[in-house]
C-alpha cells in the first residue's frame, strides 16, 4: 500500500510540475518533454533525415527546385 501511494504522489507531483499554460487559449497542457529536450530531439531527427535522404536532395539551381520555389 505504501509503494502504491508513493507512486501516486510522484505522479501527482510530476503532473503539476509539467503543466504549461498556452498563451493563445489560456488552457493548461501537460508536457512530457521540456522545451530543451524537445529541441534536442528535433535536431537529432533533422540530422537523421538529412543523412538518410542526402542523395535525393535537389540543389538550389535544379530546375525542379526553382519551379517549386
From TrEMBL:
PANTHER family documented for this protein: METALLOENDOPEPTIDASE OMA1, METALLOENDOPEPTIDASE OMA1, MITOCHONDRIAL
Classification via InterPro entries: Mito/Outer_Membr_Metalloprot
The protein, known as: Metalloendopeptidase OMA1, mitochondrial
Superkingdom of the source species: Eukaryota
Signal peptide (UniProt feature, chain positions): 1-26
Annotated keywords: Signal
Amino acid at each position: 500500500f505504501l509503494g502504491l501511494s508513493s507512486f501516486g504522489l510522484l505522479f501527482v507531483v510530476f503532473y503539476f510540475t509539467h503543466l504549461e499554460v498556452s498563451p493563445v487559449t489560456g488552457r493548461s497542457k501537460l508536457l512530457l518533454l521540456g522545451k530543451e529536450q524537445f529541441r534536442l530531439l528535433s535536431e537529432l531527427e533533422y540530422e537523421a533525415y538529412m543523412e538518410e535522404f542526402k542523395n535525393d536532395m535537389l540543389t538550389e539551381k535544379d530546375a525542379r527546385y526553382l519551379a517549386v520555389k
